[in-house]
Amino acid sequence: MMSRTAIVLFLVSLYLPIQYAAAEKLKVRAGSWMSDGNFFSEINSKLFTHLLYAEAYVNTSPFEVEIFPSDEPEFVTFSKKVKEKNPSVKTLLSIWGEAEYALMMRNPSSISSFIRSAQNISRRHGFDGVDLYWDYPKTKADKEHMESLFQEWRKYIHANDSELILTATVPYSPDWPHHDKHVSFYPIRSMARYLDWVHLVPFHYLFDQRINVSAAHSAFYDPTSYCSTAYGISNWIRGGLMPSKIVMGLPFSGYAWNLPDPKNNNLGVQTGKVQIYRALGMMTYKEIRGIIPLCGGKTRYSDTHKIYHFSCGSTWIGFDDVKTIKIKVSYAKEHKLLGYVAWRVSYDDNGLLSRAGRFS
Ligand SMILES: *[C@@H]1O[C@H](CO)[C@@H](O)[C@H](O)[C@H]1NC(C)=O
Ligand SMILES: *[C@@H]1O[C@H](CO)[C@@H](O)[C@H](O)[C@H]1NC(C)=O
Ligand SMILES: *[C@@H]1O[C@H](CO)[C@@H](O)[C@H](O)[C@H]1NC(C)=O
Questions:
Q1: What is the 3-state secondary structure (H, E, C) of the chain?
Q2: Mean pLDDT over all residues of the chain?
Q3: What atom of ligand 2 comes closest to residue 155's alpha carbon?
Q4: Which ligand is nearest the CA of 121, by number?
Q5: Tens digits of per-residue pLDDT, 144-165?
Q6: Is the pLDDT of residue 126 over 60?
C-alpha cells in the first residue's frame, strides 16, 4: 500500500504539469469577426482576449477611416456589447485597403489625417486598438511607404494615445503571392519595431495551384511546397519578425472543389474548377459540419499536412477540425509565439474550434 506521503507526492506530480500548462497560456487568443450576415450577439467573448472588428475602409477624399453605412448600426455597439460579456476583452478595428493605401502614401499630408481619423473613430466607439490590413505592398515604393506609415503611426500613438494597440494583418508568408520567386515587399524589421504584433492570415496557400487541384489550402506542413503555415512563420521569423510579435491565424473554414472522377477523391488530385459556394469555394466550418452527416459521416485525416478532407459525390472538401486546431496551438506554444487569431469567429460551429484553441 502507498504511504500517505507517497500519495501526496503522487497527487502533487499530477497537479504540477497542469499548473505548468496553465502558466503557458498564449497571451493573445484573438478572434476576427466579420458580419457576413451573422450577428455579433452570438460571439462568446469569454473565449477570447482580443476581438477584431472586420472591417473599416479608407475613404480617399478626404483620407479618413469609414464604415460601410450598412455596417454602422452593429459597428457602433460592437465594443460595448462584447465587453458586457467579458469586460477584459480588448477590441481592435481592422482597416482594409489596397489601392487606397498606395494613393494615400503618395500624398504625405493625408497620412496624418488618416492616422488621426483612425484613432478618433476607434476610440469614439470603445475600441482599444487599430489593425492595418493592407493587401499587400507590391513594390519597393510601397515598402518604404508602409515603413513610414508605421513609423508615423507609432509616433502619433506615443505622443497622443499611448495605450492604443497598433497591429497589422498580413498573409501567412511575407513572400505571398510570389513564393515561387521569394519576393517580398514587407518592411519586416520596421513592423517588428513599430507594431505591437502581427496577425497572419491562415489560408490561400495554393493561390494559383488550388484552382485545379484538391489542395491543402491551410496545410500546417507541406514537404512538397512552400505553402504551409510552418513555412510562412519561419519565413517571417527569418525576415526579422520575432516570435513574440507573431499571432498565428487559425482557419475556421475550408475549401471545396469539383471532382471530375468521384472515385479519385484524395488530396492533391486534379479537379475541375473550384466549386462556388462563396468566393473561390470557401466554406465555413459550420457549413462543413452540417454537410458531413449527409455525406456518409466519414472524414479522412492527412497526418502530413494536418488537415481533414472528405468527398461527397463530385465535391471534395478540405478543412480544419478540433484536432488540427489543437496541433496548431501547441506549435504556437512550443515556438513561443504571442498567440493565435481565429479566422473567423462567425465561421465556428457553436464555439467548438474556439474552445479547442482557448483550452488547449
Ligand atoms: C473625434 O473628433 C471629434 C470632432 O472632430 C472630436 O469632437 C472628438 O473629441 C474626437 N474624439 C476622440 C476620441 O478623439
Ligand atoms: C498628436 O496629435 C495632435 C492633434 O491631432 C497632432 O497635431 C500631433 O501631430 C500629434 N503628434 C504626433 C507626434 O503625431
Ligand atoms: C483548370 O482547368 C480548366 C478546365 O477545367 C482549364 O481551362 C485551365 O487551364 C486549368 N487551369 C490550370 C491552372 O491548370
A1: CCCHHHHHHHHHHHHHHHHHHHHCCCCEEEEEEECCCCCHHHCCHHHCCEEEEEEEEEEECCEEEECCCCCHHHHHHHHHHHHHHCCCCEEEEEEEECHHHHHHHCCCHHHHHHHHHHHHHHHHCCCCEEEEEECCCCCHHHHHHHHHHHHHHHHHHHHHCCCCEEEEEECCCCCCCCCCCCCCCCCHHHHHHHCCEEEECCCCCCCCHHHCECCCCCCCCCCCCCCCHHHHHHHHHHHCCCHHHEEEEEECEEEEEECCCCCCCCCCCECCCECCCCHHHEEEHHHHHHHHHHHCCCCEEECCCCEEEEEECCEEEEECCHHHHHHHHHHHHHCCCCEEEEECHHHCCCCHHHHHHHCC
A2: 87
A3: 13
A4: 1
A5: 999 999 999 999 999 999 999 9
A6: yes
> Ligand 3, residues 207, 208, 211, 269: which to mutate, most atoms within 8 A of Cβ?
211
Q: Whose CA is nearest to atom 5 of ligand 2?
A: 116
123 pocket-lining for ligand 1 (C-beta < 6 Å): yes
Domains of the chain in sequence order: 24-252+321-358 (3.20.20.80)
Whether this prediction's pTM lies above 0.85 is answered by yes
Q: Which atom of ligand 1 is nearest to 124's Cα?
A: 13
